[in-house]
Design a protein that fits this description.
One of its GO terms (biological process) is lysosomal lumen pH elevation. By secondary structure, the protein is α+β, with helices and mostly antiparallel strands. It has 4 helices and 26 strands. It is elongated, with a radius of gyration of 29 Å. The N and C termini lie far apart (about 115 Å). It binds 2-acetamido-2-deoxy-beta-D-glucopyranose (12 copies).
């Protein structure tokens, strides 16, 4: 009796374990016969710009929610020659992320990534005007047939008012054995070592670029944007782009590019809560996107979009990187943000925009001049050293003075005794 009970418990535990693993396991698509054809495990975050009833532009940042699940009636294993496999993940109040797969004789790929979002979901889009919107884009997700695709690096996709960021991706379509293959196709971004090895970086761009070898600080440029109410972006800063990339020979290349202000053209646009500053230097373009946080009355850098052409030794010479979930260069409306220390703005793991000697003000600018200065934390920390040195010097002076006074008193006393 006890044995049977024990057996039962064991069975229950096993079922529970399987169940837990299933709910833990990522997304699976099965056909009518129960055969698994797609498995995907991934982190997804979204940044969506939308307008409110008052005409304001806001940005909503969110991730694939806990209740995310495969929508069986929108997913499919596809029919040979007739339709492609589809993974459809539903979450929140009517949001849908969908991947359409396609294959050739050797490869399979995510042909199109589609995101359908419900702007009436006020928990995600407060004060939104409502409605639905759909964006889609071709992807670079591709793997050999019968291997699992893995890409732990962040993969950002910019689609007009939506940025989708994929990371920690493991997936496979056209499964043969109900499970992921033991063989793996690793994406290019994962092959770049996170810390570039010294010898590969020293051999950087010996060809086209002028000697960039000791990366000097870039010169400070002066940039402005004029809106309907006069100047709406005023920025003085030195700009440096730092990109690590995969070369054709499999090694890591490094490109450090200083913007030369006289050769940099700029333009932009503003409304009352969103502003763009676009800078073009040669084949490189940087777009800064500033937003106004109306509840704190502060402006801040919300996004950076980098497009550039890498040296011909790069595996892929065209490069675009986007980060649209930043919160940098922040100051009160009417004030300016200032930082003498170098600031490294993270765009992706392989792309940094380094900003030097920056002073910036957005939206409210009186008489084309910077307002009151808000110094960055880095500078304030740097101030500590001069203060310590100053205090030490003052202490030294005091000690010398006291020593001098004591000495004078002694010698004075000496004279009196003689
Ligand atoms: C999904 O990926 C996460 C992070 O990479 C990992 O911790 C988790 O174990 C994975 N889940 C499955 C079922 O593979
Ligand atoms: C998305 O952006 C386009 C312009 O790029 C705009 O016309 C459209 O209204 C936006 N859609 C939503 C839902 O905000
Ligand atoms: C798909 O399934 C969901 C719930 O699982 C249901 O609400 C929806 O109406 C179904 N759609 C279609 C087209 O059958
Ligand atoms: C699909 O197309 C291929 C070649 O075009 C053909 O050999 C195969 O029989 C087709 N399969 C079906 C189910 O129609
Ligand atoms: C993806 O596949 C579904 C189902 O076959 C189809 O309705 C949809 O139009 C496809 N979307 C794209 C962007 O190809
Ligand atoms: C939404 O609108 C209300 C009133 O119109 C306002 O008080 C609130 O701050 C707004 N929320 C956001 C996130 O803008
Ligand atoms: C990816 O997985 C690693 C290790 O499991 C984890 O530390 C990291 O936070 C994950 N990233 C995201 C965006 O989920
Ligand atoms: C499928 O499974 C069988 C036996 O488990 C194995 O021999 C075969 O290599 C597997 N095929 C693939 C593509 O993983
Ligand atoms: C992995 O790939 C190799 C070479 O392509 C192949 O010989 C091997 O059977 C594959 N293993 C699995 C588990 O698919
Ligand atoms: C920048 O300011 C100068 C001088 O005030 C002005 O001539 C120029 O048009 C401005 N440029 C832009 C893009 O607003
Ligand atoms: C460029 O970035 C790499 C890491 O991505 C870093 O090791 C290197 O110091 C950076 N160089 C500059 C000049 O910022
Ligand atoms: C311009 O100023 C007017 C009056 O102060 C204001 O209502 C309007 O929103 C401003 N426009 C922009 C784009 O800031």
């Amino acid at each position: 009796m006890a044995r049977i009970d024990g057996g039962r418990w064991l069975l229950l535990a096993a079922v529970l374990l399987v169940f837990l693993q299933m709910s833990w396991s990522a997304f699976e698509v099965t056909d009518q016969s129960g055969k698994v054809c797609i498995i995907a495990n991934l982190s997804v975050s979204f940044s969506v710009e939308y307008s409110t009833k008052s005409g304001q532009q806001l940005a909503a940042d969110f991730t694939l929610a806990q209740n995310a699940e495969v929508l069986a009636n929108k997913s499919s294993c596809g029919k040979e020659n007739a339709s492609a496999p589809v993974l459809a993940i539903g979450f929140g109040a009517g949001h849908l992320l969908q991947m359409n797969f396609t294959k050739t004789s050797k490869l399979y790929s995510v042909d199109e990534l589609t995101f359908l979002y419900n702007l009436s979901d006020t928990t995600v889009f407060p004060n939104s005007t409502g409605g639905k919107n759909e964006v889609s884009q071709k992807t670079n997700i591709q793997a050999d047939l019968d291997t699992r695709y893995r890409c732990f690096s962040t993969n950002r996709m910019n689609m007009s008012n939506v940025t989708i960021t994929l990371s920690n991706v493991t997936l496979q379509a056209y499964l043969v054995n109900h499970t992921l293959s033991g063989n793996e196709t690793v994406c290019a971004a994962d092959k770049i070592p996170t810390t570039p090895v010294a010898p590969t970086t020293t051999s950087q761009t010996p060809t086209s670029q002028a000697p960039t070898s000791p990366p000097q600080n870039p010169m400070t440029g002066k940039y402005n944007v004029t809106g309907t109410n006069g100047t709406c972006v005023l920025a003085h800063m030195g700009l440096q782009l730092n990109v690590t990339y995969l070369r054709k020979d499999g090694k890591t290349g490094l490109e450090v590019l200083n913007f030369v202000p006289v050769n940099t053209s700029f333009s932009g646009s503003c409304n009352h809560s969103s502003a763009f500053l676009s800078l073009t230097f040669g084949k490189t373009r940087l777009v800064f996107h500033f937003l106004l946080n109306t509840s704190t009355d502060k402006f801040f850098l919300h996004g950076v979009d980098v497009t550039t052409t890498l040296p011909s030794e790069a595996k892929e010479t065209k490069m675009e990187a986007v980060n649209s979930s930043m919160s940098e260069l922040r100051a009160k409306l009417g004030n300016s943000y200032k930082c003498n220390a170098e600031e490294k703005l993270w765009v992706t793991d392989h792309v940094f925009v380094n900003v030097f000697d920056v002073q910036v003000q957005v939206f409210k600018i009186d008489e084309n001049k910077f307002g009151a200065v808000e110094e960055c934390q880095l500078d304030e920390n740097n101030m500590v050293i001069p203060i310590i040195v100053g205090a030490a010097l003052a202490g030294l002076v005091l000690i010398v003075l006291i020593a001098y006074l004591i000495g004078r008193k002694r010698s004075h006393a000496g004279y009196q005794t003689i």
